Amino acid sequence: MADIQSPLPGTFYQKPSPEDAPFKSEGDAVAKGDTIGLVEVMKSFIDVEAEADGTFAGYVAENEAAVSAGDVLATLK
What single DSSP character describes residue 62? Predict the structure, then answer.
């Protein structure tokens, strides 16, 4: 099991836009470098990428939650 952590403090988004589905759902295959979410800092959006291959186990952080650098956002199996 691997954790995907926030690279910086900001607001975490599970979706690319409010109308879209989340980047990943439980059970999805994840490859290293896949985007699993976004962190917004001062109106800039930074991709949160998986650092390992695996199966998506789910989001830990809620959509639009305030996060700090190093907070666990999601986990892989």
Answer: P
Q: Give the SS3 label for residue 66.
A: strand
Q: How many CB atoms are located within 10 Å of the residue 8 CB?
A: 12
> Does pTM surpass 0.70?
yes
* pLDDT tens string 1-57: 899 999 999 999 999 999 999 999 999 999 999 999 999 999 999 999 999 999 999
User: Tokens in use for 66?
Assistant: 């305030």
Under a CB-based contact definition with an 8 Å cutoff, are residues 22 and 66 in contact? no
Show the beta-strand stretches assigned E in the chain. Answer: 2-5, 10-13, 29-30, 35-41, 44-49, 54-59, 65-67, 72-76
Structure tokens at 46: 């930074």
